[in-house]
Amino acid sequence: MAVKSYILIETEVGTAKQVALSLGDITHSDGEIKSVELVTGPFDVICLVEAENLEQLGSCITDSIQTVAGVKRTTTCLTIQV
Q: pTM for the complete prediction?
């Protein structure tokens, strides 16, 4: 069963747009970034990521998302089935 997660991203001042554009161009073997949105509030960018399992999701976050220039901090929100 695939896992879905919203990744809430804080960026360095003035880098939100470039971070969002960079995230939209990423392809990662362990997970897929389904959408990237610029937002207002305490976070600057939110992206939806899908992966086969938690290990692959973690790899996608740490190897791809957190390494983008301008990313300051991420918060991961796993989705749950109700």
A: 0.91
